[in-house]
Amino acid sequence: MIGEIEQLFTLDLKTVIIGLLLIIIVGPKIGKSWVGFWDFIGFEPKSLRKEREQKEKTKKLFEKQEEYHQQSIRIRDGLEKNQQKLDKNQQNLEMHQEEMKQDLFEIRTSLSCIQKMLLKNTIETKRKNILDFCATLSNKQKQNKEAFNEIFRTYEDYEKILKDNDMENGQTEESMKFISEIYQQMLRNGDLI
Description:
Blueprint: H1 2-9, H2 13-41, H3 46-138, H4 145-164, H5 173-189
């Protein structure tokens, strides 16, 4: 064995370089052949199995990461669309609110006008009833006690409406004086039915 070791030290530089080059060139090919051999017979060394599992895990992680990235893009796009819809709905809501305010203003204006017309009509109707009753008495038509009581209630309502609406009476005062005089006269004479 010593002889063999001595032979190694007697090798020339050229042989050593060629040997190293052969190891460098042929070594990886032998490794690949060795892996191919194990694949061929269906055996997988533990180191290759761990390496393969690690590659699979890494690949799955990248796939999951890509899947999560795509999900986040879809979520972001969905959020943007929802935000656009919300903005549009908000604009529509504001527009409808403005329209409703305008409609409400018009309704209030119309209602106020109708109330004034109803008030005027009520006042005119009560005034006309008082004046018509006075006219029937002026024409010497007989009236019963119930008719007088009704006209007195009408006059009280008429005065209350005028007072509540800051209006003045100027058209029925003389008629009511005449009606009251006739009523008193009929009471004294016993002519009331």
